[in-house]
Amino acid sequence: MGFFRGDIYSYALDKMTPINLYLPYDDNRRFQVKKTQKTLILLHGLEGNCSYWNRYTSVERYAQERNIALIMPDGDMSLYADMRCGQRYATYIGEELPEILRNMFCLNLDRESFYIAGLSMGGYGALRMALTHPETFGRCASYSGALMLGSREYLQTLSEYREPERGSTYIEREEIDRSMYYGALGAYGETMKYCPENDILALAENNIRLGKKLPEILLTCGTEDFLFDVNCMYSDKLNDMGVKNEFRTWPGIHNWLFWEESIRDTIDFFVD
Fold it and tell me: Which residue, 7, 123, 196, 257, could crosslink 142 as a Cys pair with Cβ 3.0–4.6 Å?
């Protein structure tokens, strides 16, 4: 594959922003951008950046075998929202980036060939983008997704958060809670104001009400992940609403070992 790493200007963000891309070759090592390929946007997690997927997984190899172009934008700690105290990352990812990919890289962005996925915060972001723009994305996947990030209940929990004193010992869950809080602070403001456009279930309900065709949804989560119960609940609630989703789970925690297995074992979800 061809690997490109650089910066593009975003009007939504009002700044240059980094992006990584993989474009597949054919058997003669010529680019396949003129041949129909799938296009997959991969979103990083809360403490990551656009380099994480290609640094910690073999996703390039999996995508090459299936003629998938990979797009890895940077989402900062935005929760992939149009932030109250920051930039408009929801507009950038959901509206501006597809236009850039179509015009600058000539990629195939037909709905049935254009997908979005992510891990943790990016899993939430992938479902949020796909349900906000169901006419754009045909499929979406969430790996260990923090699916509750825009919900009224979780915002209430975050509004009561008090940062503990930092001790000499690293406690992973405390660090994750801290990152969640400060990410939400920028995205939603000090009042942690609830907005339906940030709530996955509210977005799904609105699409059903409007009679829109929904994207195909895949969820994965490790059985020992602290977000396992959240993912079980969201899968059940989506099913109860009539929003079909495939939920795959196996032993694992919130780490790159599980996300490597997820992208390796689910890449066929993005190929007919």
Answer: 123
pLDDT tens figures, 86-100:
999 999 999 999 999
pLDDT in tens, 167-195: 767 677 778 888 889 999 999 999 999 99
CATH classification of the domain holding 234 = 3.40.50.1820
Residue 88 inside a domain? The answer is yes
Beta-bridged to residue 118, according to DSSP, are 43, 142
125-184 pLDDT tens trace: 999 999 999 999 999 999 999 999 999 999 999 888 888 777 767 677 778 888 889 999
Exposed e or buried b per residue across 215-244, where buried means at least 16 C-beta atoms within 10 angstroms of its C-beta: bbbbbbbbeebbbbebbeebbeebeeeebe
68-73 and 216-222: which strand pairing? unpaired
Ranges of H-type helices in 48-171: 52-56, 59-65, 89-91, 97-105, 121-132, 152-159
Asked if residue 73 belongs to a domain, the reply is yes
Alpha carbon distances (Å) from 148 to 40, 235, 261: 23, 12, 23
Q: Which residue range(s) make up the domain with 15? A: 2-149+196-270
Amino acid identity of residue 96, one-letter, is: E
Beta strands in 88-226 (DSSP E): 114-119, 139-143, 216-222
Residue 172 phi, psi (nearest 5): -55, -45
Cβ count within 10 A of residue 31: 15
User: At residue 179, what is the residue type?
Assistant: S
**Looking at the 3D structure of the chain, how many domains does it have?**
1
**CB within 8 A of 104, min separation 6: which ones?**
8
